[in-house]
Amino acid sequence: MVALVCALGLCCCGFAEDLGGPHAVPTPEQILWQDAELGMFIHFAPNTWQDAEGDQGTTPLDKINPEKLDTDQWVRVAESLGAKYIVFVVKHVGGFCMWQTGTTEYSIKNTAWRGGKGDVLADLSASCKKRGMKLGLYLCPRDDHFGAGDSGKCATPEKQAKYAELYRQQLTEVLSGYGDMFEIWLDGGNVVEFGDILQKHAPHAMVFQGKYATIRWVGNEDGLAPYPAWNCTTKAAASGGGATAADSTPFGDVWLPSECDVSLRRDWFWNTKNEKTIKPVDKLMDIYCRSVGRGAVLLLNLTPDTTGLIPEADAKRAAEFGAEIKRRFESSLASTAGDGNTLEMGLTALRPVDHTILMEDISQGERVLEYVIEAQVNGEWKEVVKGTAIGHKKIDQFAPVESGRWRFRCLKSNGPVSVSKFAAYSVGGK
Length: 430
Prior knowledge:
The chain is α/β, with parallel strands linked by helices. Helix content is 21%, strand content 27%.
């Protein structure tokens, strides 16, 4: 299915109302992150051995021995999913460290795995480098083993000072010894000052939550963005460190895109009872269209079991999901791009179209505030779908319409419109 050279430009019905307003734009690093669209989360901690979501501190460290652990397998699963980056939980709320840290005895160095010489973060870093996979990490500010609560808050000034020293050393270790990091997850912000460490060791990494945030939480753990989920927010919302998609506005003065996190299983950690909760492909595609398809980035969690491998059922489902994304959207019936309030494109043959994809050139900001997609039927333009935000990507789904000519019109804008992609698809039956 070959795209035709398509007619572009303004028409008498294509002039948009320009509402003006601030034009926040992303940094090059934010654009690179949004272009990734899909990442893979990995949760792995002592509670994997406890059949629990939270580390109860009950597992003797000499019982932790994931003998088959293979980070190459983790990366292969991410690739089959179509993920462009991995965020690895190097320390969850329980405080257990998955690298050779000098800050605590509650770490992988005191387990039976590889005689205490193993370093999961080092292995994963090497695997990612081999395959060109970007790597990020989750270093939880909360630490139950130390006694630090949410956001790293401690009960006394003395304990707070001690924890600040410990956390800063942990962050320095993981950011300075394992290569460049694509993303740093803080989960709820952080009372410990660490801006100097970021600037020194990870100036280009995306930061999830906290006062140095460059990306924000969508606001739920279902992987779903609301619509519209504008990329911009206000300085006041951004400075608080806890902004979500609910704080979105097309007239914001800070570019702070949303990340949608969700687990393949019901829980974030593997246990012996949750394999039946693995989400079906149809559910995952619905999540994809309501996250990536609403301009956000999707972070899908997969979790190794006690052997250290991502279970076969999970790996199989990840590959099926990745294959379905490709089946639906790898090839379009027609595609075009251009500047201006109206774009038209023609198909090589009359085909039923049931999806379109729109993408703005977000390097210029998010300009489109309202748009319509139309199909030419019996010589007349028929409205098929109407929307508001486009941003990085908007996937529209609708009942099949058979037409050889399609049109995008911007009805309201926040400045000159630049569309980097307008494409039509026939997804058909599943």
